[in-house]
Protein 1
Amino acid sequence: VQLVESGGGSVQAGGSLRLSCAASGYTSTINYMAWFRRAPGKEREGVAAIASDGRIRYADPVKGRFTISKDNAKNTLYLGMNALKPEDTAMYYCAADRLAWWLLPRYSNWGQGTQVTVS
């Protein structure tokens, strides 16, 4: 499985962005997809995850501001981010796996990341 993120950029606090993650390869093996982020000097943390049956989990810092969704026809995962804060600044990664890792960083497949900077 190959994952390619896009949509990052620089925004002012309070602004919005939408990240995309295009999956290719053996996508039929994917049951769970997630977004992670790593800020400078910090550990990678789970942001949001979605199961193939639609179940969703969010990390507490982003609840009510971020929305994870997926378009199965396009094999694409999205992360809508509203009310962005400077502390949301990080490299954002897409992840996918057959197993239910949810917000644990134990996924088998990872993208290269897309940078989000909030000032």
Protein 2
Amino acid sequence: QLQLVESGGGLVQPGGSLRLSCTASGMGIAPYPMRWYRQAPEKERELVADIDSNGVPSAYAASVKGRFIVSRDNVRRTIWLQMNSLKPEDTAMYYCYCRILDYGTGIWSDVWGQGTQVTVSS
């Protein structure tokens, strides 16, 4: 069973940087696109970045484009989100996400990490 664990969140001043990590255990992530989502208080969860199975970023939210970079290492079963030029509006819980296939049953499942909090404030 795939488990995702995020780390790297914290408190940072506006203009600063953070690097989030998401490490998988239980199975490999190589065949699957991976995503970062975030959710701020009283707001809907939004897609931040998407990276395909080959490590090519395929989507960024307009609000983070040019500031955030998503990357992955399938051998290390880890994806990262490098966040630069952080703004107060980037404050949110950040989640790692993967949709995986059970090849035995043909059923797709959504897998979420527990999240890591990012707070941008002076």
Protein 3
Amino acid sequence: AVYLEESGGGPVQAGESLRLSCTISGFYNNNYCLGWFRQAPEKEREGVAAISSDDGFISYADSVKGRFTISRDRSDNILYLQMHSLNPEDTAVYYCAASRQYCYTLREDAMEYWGKGIQVTVSP
């Protein structure tokens, strides 16, 4: 079974930084896509960032470009999302996700496996 578990969330002040981690287990594929998504209160879930197995595809939502960075530790099967200059609009539940297909897009329906999500709250 594939398991994804997010960690590193919590409350922060506007302008601060936070790093989310996602530990992935039971997931082995030569080609894959890993991503971060988020859902703010009363809004639909949206893509934040995605990275392909060979780093050939890396994509960010316009709202986070220049502030967030997606990366991963291949040896430990951990996906990261480094977030800088956080603002209240970044408040959401953040989910990591994985697909056994190569990334071509940052879309929710391209993902197969999901973590349970972790709350990030940014205060003014």
